[in-house]
Every structure is written in C-alpha cells, then in structure tokens.
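Standup notes
- DV: blocked on the single-chain target, sequence here:
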Amino acid sequence: MEKRIDFTSGAIVLPLLKFAGPVLLALFLQAMYGAVDLLVVGKFAESADVSAVSTGSQIMATITNIISSLCMGMTIFLGQKIGEKRADEGGRIVGSGLVLFAAIGCFLTMLIPVSAPKLALTMHAPVEAFELTTTYIRICGAGIIVIMAYNMIGGIFRGMGDSNTPLVTVLIACICNIIGDLLFVAVLHMGTKGAALATVGAQFISVVISCILISHKTLPFKLEKKMITWNTRIINRILVLGIPIAVQDLLVGMSFLVILAIVNSIGLVASAGIGVAEKVCVFIMLVPMSFMQSMSAFVAQNRGAGKLDRAFKGFRAAVGISFIFGAVMFYTGFFHGDLLSGIFSSDAAVIQAGFEYIKAYAVDCLFTCFLFCFIGFYNGMGYTTFVMAQGIIGAFLVRVPVSFLMSKLMPGSLFHIGLATPCSTIVQILLCFGCLIYMSRKKDLKLI
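- DV (later): unblocked, structure below
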C-alpha cells in the first residue's frame, strides 16, 4: 500500500506534520547537495573557485527555481483533482506535463551554455573567477533537462500527497553528489569544473534510479503511453497556475542576483563571503520552506474538496509550528553565524563576511514563518497571480532599492545590505494579510 495522505478529512496537524517531515528532510538533503559543492571546493580549492561556484550556483538555483515553480502548476492542478475525487485525470495531467517540460528542457539545454559568458558578466563575477564561473554555468546548463526531470518527479508525487518518494530521489542525488565532489574536486583537483560535473552527474543517476523505483509503484491513476501527448486544455491550466509562480521566482531570484552583483563589486572576499552565507541561509530557511510546500499540497486538496475553512486551519497550525523553529534559527544565526560560516570556509576574512550577511537573514527568520506559509496557502488556493504580485513588489520596490541604498550608505557592510531581505518580507506579509481579508469577504472564510 503506497503512503499517500488524504488532507481533506480527519485530524489536521498530525497528517500535515507527517507530510512536512519528509519534505523537510528532502529540502535538507537538497541544501546539503548544494552545500557540499561549496564545502569541498572551499577546503580543496582556491577563493576564485569558491566565488565561481557561489555565483554560478546562484544563477543555476534561480533557473532551477523557475523550473520547480512551473512544476508547482502541475502539483496544484493534480492536488485539486485528487481533492475533487477525480484522480482519473491524473494520468492526462502528468502525460501532458511530461511533454511540456521536455520541450522547455530541450530549449534551455541549448540556450544556457551559449549564454554562460553573458550571465557571468551580468553578475559582475570577479575577474579572477570569471572564466571559472562561465565554466560552471555551461556544464550545469548542458544538464538542465536532467534537473527539470528531477524536479518534475518531486512535483508529481507531492501533488498526490506522497512526500516520501521525493525524499528518496533527493537522498540518491545527495549521496551521488558527495561521492562526485570528493572524486572530482578532492582527489582529481578539478575545482569548479569538478563541482559542476558532480552536480549534473548526481541528478542524472537520481533520475534514472527514481524512474526505476516509480515503475514499481501503484499510482492512484493510470498513466498510459497515449496520455503522453500535448493536451492544450491541460497544459494551459498548468501554465495558468505555474507561470505566475515562475515569474515571481524569476524576478525574486533576479533581485537576489542583483544583490549578489552589488556585493561582487565590493571585492573577492565579499563575493566569497556572501556565497558562503547563502549556503548557510538555505539551511536556516528549511522549516518555513518545508511548510510552504506542504501548505500547497494541503490547501490544494481541501480547495478541491470545497473545505476552505479546513484549509485555513491548516495554515494557522503551520504558522505556529514554523515560528517556534524560526525563533531557534534567529538565535543560532544572529549569535553564532561565524561558526556556521566556518563550516564552508577556512579563510578568516570570508568567514567574517559571511557572518555579517547571516545576521541579517537571522532577523528574517522571525518573519518568514508567516510569509512562506502564506505563499503555500495562496498557491494551493490557486491565487498564483497574487503570489506573483506580492513577490515582485517585495523584490523590486523594497529588497533591491534598500540593498542598493545600504551599499552606498554603509559601503562594505554585508549586514546592512542583507537587512533588505527582512524589510521586503514585512511588506509582503502586510500584502498577504490584505488578501486574506479580501478572501474572507468573498469566500466566507473564517479568520477566527
């Protein structure tokens, strides 16, 4: 019997935690996946390699987030049909999604390697690390179709209420990446190139093994060869749900790339420091991220079943649990960020630079428990256009202007530049509360 969770009846907190647990572990392993690259490179290569991997991985993370966001359109659509007790449509949704994402993957596989120098130039990659950054982007870009397949597998199963299978796929990828990094970087001393090869190779192996595992699973719907076709109605719906999320993630990701470019202009140490800090911050944000993804699946099923009040009760429970962990992460990052930064670098100057930026992210931990749960809630409800709007407002009307202003008022201070993130989070939370009040009036949603 496959372990899939029906969120539309029974207890709320326990099923939500059972689903969020594997999601959290999967995100942790995915964070380890990216962190191992920087950790091994930081220990066995030069500062230029650290800067190249941090800048290149940030660009690839932005592209990967866009892919994951498009896959979220399929996750939400599939979850809503399951909530409506119409899982029979699942095969057609997945089949059409396969065709759509295969086409996008082929296009990006050709585009990214050719655009690698321009991307590195746009990011103001330090001169010492420019060629290495370009190499990293080219190698990872050539394997983008593998990254797309990797994210799609997770999206399908989360939509079905199964968070265990994505955990397995990430575990496989993480183990393979660690082995690849140690082989290519620590043993063969291939530096940035080795880290990129390990990343793509690990995900390829994960996809192959995952497909074998999936072929032996019992799905709640039939997936036949004839269903793997371009169904305009289904693809339009996936895109209607997924594109706003993808646009938001693209523009939000671009806002962080702008901040990275601002920091890169300060110098190599600051560039390496923010790269180290970003890896630490991924771990700091794991719990709210896991609840964001869990909320999307939970709310999508309940929206499909017409149980909006139950969806909101799940949201309130997620915020409360997430806030407890957020407070712990605030304390750890704000007062002991140097120890966390030291995990990824042995350079004292880089460690201190990373600590400054981590302190600002630690402040953000007190607010993201609200924002990320809100985003998951609205995604599950299908309000993806609002999610896009609030993300764009936070990114380009707050985060980018504040970070630029701070770079001029407090030149070289990564802490003050990093404060742009919690500032934008607060504005986005206010927008989310406004949308909630609007929903309560239009949908009779009980806020108490």
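- Follow-up: The longest helix spans residues 47-83.
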